[in-house]
Design brief:
The chain is mainly β and about 120 residues long. About 0% of the residues lie in helices and about 50% in strands. The strands form two sheets. Strands 2, 4, 5, 6, 9, 10 and 11 form a seven-stranded mixed β-sheet that branches. A four-stranded antiparallel β-sheet has the order 1-3-8-7, with no helix packed on it.
Length: about 120
């Protein structure tokens, strides 16, 4: 079992930055692929970014070049640095853990409760 707790969301103006954190419990954190997803009102939850245990990242086209995913295995934490934010980035952001690399919601086994990110124009 892995428990995930996100933090760092908030209200920011367009063009600004936020850094999300996701703290994981359990000693097997380093074995999981960690992902970030987001869900805007009235829309399906969508993939944002994922990172392998060794640190390589993979991004949705919509955030590539603006967002950076990273992890600290010693701290059991994964981060999402979000720069050049746009109003369309407004959503609840979720952290998730998977036993293998996937980009689908169904492929992730554990989820956090989410943190709200609101970008004003």
């Amino acid at each position: 079992q892995v428990q995930l707790v996100e933090s760092g969301g908030g209200l920011v103006q367009a063009g600004g930055s936020l850094r999300l954190s996701c703290a994981a419990s359990g000693s097997t954190f380093r074995s999981y692929v960690m992902g970030w997803f987001r869900q805007a009102p009235g829309k399906e939850r969508e993939f944002v970014a994922a990172i392998w245990s060794g640190g390589g990242g993979y991004y949705a086209d919509s955030v590539k070049g603006r967002f950076t995913i990273s992890r600290d295995n010693a701290k059991g934490t994964v981060y999402l640095q979000m720069n050049s934010l746009k109003p369309e980035d407004t959503a609840v952001y979720y952290c998730a853990a998977a036993s293998r690399f996937v980009v689908t919601v169904q492929g992730y086994d554990y989820w956090g409760q989410g943190t709200q990110v609101t970008v004003s124009s």
